[in-house]
Amino acid sequence: MATPGRYPLAILGAGALGLHFAARLAAVGPVALVARNAVRAAALRAGVEVDSRRFVPEVFAPDALPQADWVILLVKTGDTAEAARTALALQPRGVVSLQNGLVEALLTEACGTVPAGQGITTEGAFREGSRVQPAGAGETLLPPGFETLAAALGAAGLRARVEPDIAAARLAKLLVNVAINPLAALFRVPNGALLEAPHRVLLEALVSEAWPVLREAGLTLDEAAALARVQAVATATAANRASMLQDVLAGRPTEIDAITGALLAMAAAQGRGLPTHQAVYTLIRRLAG
Ligand SMILES: NC(=O)c1ccc[n+]([C@@H]2O[C@H](COP(=O)([O-])OP(=O)(O)OC[C@H]3O[C@@H](n4cnc5c(N)ncnc54)[C@H](OP(=O)(O)O)[C@@H]3O)[C@@H](O)[C@H]2O)c1
Q1: I need a labelling partner for 93 at 20 to 30 A (CA). Which of 8, 47, 277, 284 fits?
Q2: Quick check: 96 pLDDT over 80?
Q3: Apex 121 CA angle, 114 and 184, nearest 5
Q4: What pTM value is reported for the model?
Q5: CATH topology match: 6-162 vs 166-288
Q6: How far is the CA of 230 from the centre of ligand 1 (A)?
Q7: pLDDT in tens, 220-237
Q8: What Rg do the C-alpha atoms of the chain give, in angstroms?
Q9: What are the tens digits of pLDDT across the range 162-187?
Q10: Is residue 121 within 8 Å of 150, Cβ to Cβ?
Q11: Would you list the domain boundaries of the chain?
């Protein structure tokens, strides 16, 4: 059983990406992993297979927490508010989310005076039963103020840096997510199929509707570059099942509110309607909640 104390790092959310990060970080130093509840924490204490190796995390439940300097939040977006309350109970110096979608406003409000922000990551991992399998190395970009955390991730062999224009980087990731995730989930196809008929026309419609909204919000890509970015990600991940498709197939809630919902809210604030995104949002909500 782990001894409560003060950890340099904590990972909040013992799912696919949380366990991947925790296993990598634990190989080079102490890291506290926070699971959803005591039952899950007890199960994880027995060990879990991550990247074909047995990983025995120092794992805690929200009702018996240690303290931690830096917290990385890796729950699904619907669990952000509750996880932020748990993060604060760790008495951290800073809390950073690496979730998809846009959660920064919710997170900073929940964290009050504790520095909080949302970065992005292209690290990938998926769950196969109780195993966690990394899905290719990526890069993690953190908001300014999280230099110490970037160095800790780097020391664990994860590519990470502070990105001065993290808002633009988040919008570029949102662009990819609003285009690929809902379509892959609706048509139940791997990402690469979205580049072919009959899906391609919808992919392009989603990009061309989203682009002006994201551009006005601070996206630094022009329209051709925006489409090229989405196509490049679909090509590079052609065989992958998008996370929203995995959620739909597993009967789990999707992250549609933090992804397409966030885009629609931005568009509404700019006085724009996005009919294709609205349709996709309604269909996913009907399908999976
Ligand atoms: N997986 C990827 O490749 C990837 C890549 C980039 C970004 N992301 C983003 O990273 C986030 C996490 O994704 P994931 O794939 O790791 O999801 P996941 O496998 O579903 O893991 C989320 C974990 O959070 C736990 N959790 C939920 N509420 C909690 C709470 N209040 N306190 C502590 N733990 C809680 C869940 O517990 P239970 O198991 O009990 O439900 C689950 O283990 C998402 O926003 C996703 O979009 C994922």
Answers
A1: 47
A2: yes
A3: 125
A4: 0.96
A5: no
A6: 24
A7: 999 999 999 999 999 999
A8: 19
A9: 999 999 999 999 999 999 999 999 99
A10: no
A11: 6-162, 166-288
Look up tokens 């988040």; give the residue: 170
The burial class, CB within 10 Å (0-12 / 13-18 / 19+), for 124 is: middle
Q: pLDDT at residue 2 above 90?
A: no
Helix (H) / strand (E) element for 279: namely helix 275-288
Catalytic residues: 173
pLDDT, tens digit (0-9, with 9 covering 90-100), for 123-150: 999 998 889 999 878 999 999 999 999 9
Give the sheet arrangement for strand 159-162, strand by strand.
Answer: 120-121, 139-142, 159-162
CATH class as words, domain 6-162: alpha beta
- Beta-sheet strand order (sheet of 58-60): 58-60, 32-34, 6-12, 67-73, 94-97, 116-118
> Both tokens of residue 267?
């568009």
Cα separation, 188 vs 1, in Å, equals 42
Q: Give the single-character DSSP code of 146.
A: -
Residues near ligand 1 with C-beta < 6 Å? 12-18, 34-36, 40, 62, 74-77, 79, 82-83, 86, 98-100, 121, 124-125, 127, 135, 243, 255
